[in-house]
What we know:
By secondary structure, the protein is mainly alpha-helical.
Amino acid sequence: VDLLPEISQPPRILSDVDGALKVKQMKAELDEYLK
C-alpha cells in the first residue's frame, strides 16, 4: 500500500460537510460531543 502514488495525497472530500453541519446548527454540538 505504501508504494501507491496516491498514498502521499490527502483524501478528497467531495461534499461540503462543514457547510452542511453549519446549516443544520449541529457543528457546535458535534464538536462539543467529540471533545
